[in-house]
TrEMBL record:
<feature type="signal peptide">
    <location>
        <begin position="1"/>
        <end position="22"/>
    </location>
</feature>
<protein>
    <submittedName>
        <fullName>Uncharacterized protein</fullName>
    </submittedName>
</protein>
<keyword id="KW-0732">Signal</keyword>
<feature type="compositionally biased region" description="Pro residues">
    <location>
        <begin position="196"/>
        <end position="207"/>
    </location>
</feature>
<feature type="region of interest" description="Disordered">
    <location>
        <begin position="166"/>
        <end position="208"/>
    </location>
</feature>
Amino acid sequence: MKPTLLAALCAILCAGPTLALAQDEDDWEFQHEASLNQTVAAVRYDAGVAIVLQCRDNALSAALVGMPAGVGGIEVQARRADGRTDLQTWVPGPQPGVMLSTVPARDIRFMRGGGLYSVRTVDGAPRALRTNFDLPTQSANLDRVLTACGWALTDDRDQLGRAGSEVSFRDPAAPPPRLPQPRRGRGARPGMPDAPEAPPPGVPVPEPAESQISCVLRAMRLTLCRLDHPPTAAGNEARRSLRRLEGVQMYAADAAAAEGKVVYTAGPRTVTVIDYIAVGR
């Protein structure tokens, strides 16, 4: 999450009831700030828990606020009262208790319509998370956030299952990559300390939603790859990303279960939601 989203969260959650947010009958709270090119929809609950959706400078984001601190990247089974289910991935934000969606447009569309929105970590997760949200019955203000960032209110790929951590670009049977070994500095003598190791990687940050690419798994290869939020004129790098991804071999312990699912990546760099889970845990 960038500082702009952090500012939006603070404006909505810290100001309390004094903040002038428009709210139609049982709809999401809404705020549009033209000077900041910002559109926000939010729903707040007790104990500081909230869902905050934002379009800021044409960049879409979705955040769960008030989650348990210390939770890394998580994969959850999401369920709606009407029977809809989906797999979702959330990663840590810049502050404890803030989780960011790695595929915000799809996850926001999943929240359309009122009633129960339940998230549960999958079986075997290192840390369990179980949360229920009672969503407003109206979704007009939620739709305004999607529209402000140029996202469609429906997408045919939302009807396909989403590939999760069971699908990977890496062959699990392949030997692990060799990590570089620390070397002593030139002229180091016995008893002298080694050169300091590189610092560990920081908290993973989701790639911009607008760089999102989705592909459908067929016979464990990526097919029908597309830019989910096509720019006005797709750049050469974006087109190269699509060409590189098309036909790429994927791996899963159960290939039959993965058949026909959607894999979400980010271009122009091929970074998958699976990698976020691995780093965040």
